[in-house]
Structure formats: C-alpha cells, structure tokens
Design brief:
alpha+beta, Alpha-Beta Plaits, two-stranded antiparallel ribbon, two-stranded antiparallel sheet, 4 helices, globular, binds iron/sulfur cluster
C-alpha cells in the first residue's frame, strides 16, 4: 500500500489558525513567523486526519483529494522542508 500524507493548501494563507499544529501527533506541521501558511512534512505525516478535522478554513487535504487548482501545494509543502515534489511523491509511493 502506498503511504498517504496530507497537504495544506491556499485557504491557510493569511489565516494560519494553528489548530492543526496543536493536534498533529508527529510534529509534521510547521511554519515560520514570516511564512504565510503552515506546511506538512510528508515524511512525518502518519495519515491520522486530525489536522483536517480541526482546520476552520478546510485548507487541509489528503494527497489524493487535493483539489486540482491547488495541486501545486504538494510541492510548496515539500519545498518548505527542503524537499522536492519527487521526494513527497516517493513517500507516498506515487
Ligand atoms: S494527518 Fe495527522 S500526522 Fe499528518 S499532518 Fe495531519 S495531524 Fe499530522
């Protein structure tokens, strides 16, 4: 089975509620003060869905459910952690 992970997309920008950060059991969700959104490290995500359930702006999606218009956010999330889209894809086995 390919390993699944979650991605934070555009609705987070400018909101940065942070509820996801508080509930993530693996510290996969990170940001910086200067960053406009939170990001998920695909290699640390264990597909528990806790972040998706608490996000007040529905910015978090599993990789396979990411809306087409936000497909680029897989790479944007990976890049925050110094990884490439290929790296994140490799983690998911895609
Ligand atoms: S799905 Fe779970 S492990 Fe993955 S980023 Fe969200 S809260 Fe963290």
């Amino acid at each position: 089975m390919p390993r699944m992970f979650y991605v934070i997309a555009e609705p987070c920008i400018g909101v940065k509620d942070g509820a996801c950060f508080d509930v993530c059991p693996t510290q996969a969700i990170q940001t910086t003060e200067e960053s406009t959104q939170y990001y998920i490290d695909a290699d640390l995500c264990i597909d528990c869905r806790a972040c998706e359930l608490v996000c007040p702006v529905s910015a978090i999606f599993s990789y396979y459910d990411l809306p087409e218009q936000w497909a680029g956010y897989t790479e944007i999330n990976a890049r925050f952690f110094g990884k490439t889209k290929g790296g994140a894809g490799a983690a998911a086995g895609v």
